[in-house]
């Protein structure tokens, strides 16, 4: 052993064996990597085509070729991009080069997500996302219908207050007419007429309120019927685009029903009637036979009128409470494409988004694996000279190469000697011709 030769340590030998083993694995994996990248790129292109087709309204030949061209461009872009990264990034030895290519990989991955992954998600979960949009719209319409119905029922509840007060005045009027319950003199006097007049005003308001019951219930039943049809369209079989058209028609009808329910609320009518009630009462002329009776009638009528004013204030306050309830927001169904629906309801379709992104960015995992493997190979070979890393197969290949070189050189030397001999013999052959 010469002074330049040294024996490998156990750690160096182990690292060298590991590096050679990993190189053998990479050599075999290199044979299938391009095919795997091509399959992933084609699959992504197919789903991209489906996503683009859902966005294009026209179904003619131009739209078809546009979708095909876009999907092919995406497939080629994904294949070329990851081919570059798989070859270059794991081979980077400097920190600046590694960081630069890593940033380029991140930017390229974001570009792939922007041009392909969201369309893949639209193809995977587009119909389900549109159906969820329909279901959410149904919930919004149902909430608006129930709120409008609740406001209308609160308005109808004012009728019970009016009825209770009307019965009180009616009873007072009856007692006054039969027994003179307030003035002490029975008969159809001024007080009885005032009480009857107040009773008639309250009865008219009560009848108006009661007349709205049938309309409110009919509108609410119609709204529920339309909601049932919209729910059925949400889960019905068939293309979601066709169901969306029928859904939109039903939503327009339901919006009209909700608007009618808002108009059927009697709270504004009760508020106006309560404000006008004192002014609508006409005080009858005192008709008592004596001054004492007329004084009693006057006091009683003043008390009745004060009671009417209190009733007016009470009804007005109750009506104001109903009017203060915020009416339902105007709900309208807005058709949405499958791609937009997937983006809007992305939280509900996390598995589809994960699959759509994974099919495009899965080669990034291969890049990481290759980078780790190349680092392990370099670690196993660092510090070793070329002579120390040669294997028996490498030596055999080198010897065969030397033999090939020597054989080639021998053939070349033989050819040169033959030519020289030919050139020396040529003048002797031409001598007789010269003579």
UniProtKB/TrEMBL annotation:
Top-level taxonomic group: Bacteria
Keywords from the named record: Coiled coil, Membrane, Transmembrane, Transmembrane helix
Residues forming coiled coils: 195-222
Transmembrane segments: 26-50, 62-86, 98-119, 353-372
The name this protein goes by in its record: Uncharacterized protein
């Amino acid at each position: 052993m010469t002074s330049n030769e040294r024996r490998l340590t156990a750690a160096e030998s182990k690292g060298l064996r590991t590096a050679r083993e990993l190189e053998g694995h990479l050599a075999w994996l290199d044979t299938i990597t391009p095919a795997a990248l091509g399959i992933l790129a084609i699959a992504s292109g197919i789903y991209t085509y489906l996503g683009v087709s859902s966005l294009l309204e026209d179904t003619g030949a131009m739209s078809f070729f546009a979708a095909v061209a876009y999907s092919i461009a995406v497939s080629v872009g994904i294949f070329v991009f990851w081919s570059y990264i798989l070859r270059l990034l794991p081979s980077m030895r400097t920190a600046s080069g590694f960081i630069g290519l890593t940033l380029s990989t991140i930017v390229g991955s974001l570009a792939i997500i922007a041009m392909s992954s969201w369309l893949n998600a639209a193809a995977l979960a587009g119909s389900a996302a549109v159906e969820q949009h329909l279901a959410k719209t149904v919930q919004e319409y149902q909430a608006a219908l129930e709120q409008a119905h609740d406001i209308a029922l609160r308005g109808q509840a004012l009728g019970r207050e009016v009825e209770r007060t009307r019965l009180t005045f009616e009873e007072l009027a009856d007692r006054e007419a039969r027994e003179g319950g307030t003035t002490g003199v029975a008969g159809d006097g001024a007080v009885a007429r005032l009480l009857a007049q107040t009773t008639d005003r309250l009865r008219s308001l009560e009848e108006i309120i009661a007349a709205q019951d049938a309309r409110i219930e009919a509108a609410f039943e119609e709204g529920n019927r339309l909601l049932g049809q919209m729910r059925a369209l949400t889960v019905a079989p068939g293309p979601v685009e066709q169901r969306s058209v029928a859904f939109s028609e039903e939503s327009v009808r339901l919006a009209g029903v909700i608007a009618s329910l808002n108009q059927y609320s009697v709270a504004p009518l009760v508020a106006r009637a309560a404000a006008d009630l004192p002014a609508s009462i006409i005080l009858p002329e005192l008709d008592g036979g004596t001054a004492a009776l007329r004084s009693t009638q006057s006091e009683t009528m003043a008390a009745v009128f004060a009671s009417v004013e209190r009733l007016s204030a009470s009804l007005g306050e109750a009506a104001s409470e109903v009017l203060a309830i915020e009416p339902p927001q105007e709900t309208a169904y807005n058709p949405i494409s499958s791609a937009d629906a997937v983006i809007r309801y992305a939280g509900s379709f996390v598995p589809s988004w994960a699959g759509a992104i994974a099919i495009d960015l899965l080669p990034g995992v291969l890049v990481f694996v290759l980078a780790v493997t190349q680092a392990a190979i370099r670690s196993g070979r660092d510090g070793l000279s070329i002579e120390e890393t040669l294997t028996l197969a490498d030596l055999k290949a080198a010897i065969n190469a030397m033999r090939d070189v020597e054989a080639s050189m021998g053939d070349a030397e033989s050819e040169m000697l033959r030519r020289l001999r030919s050139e020396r013999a040529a003048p002797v052959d031409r001598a007789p011709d010269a003579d």
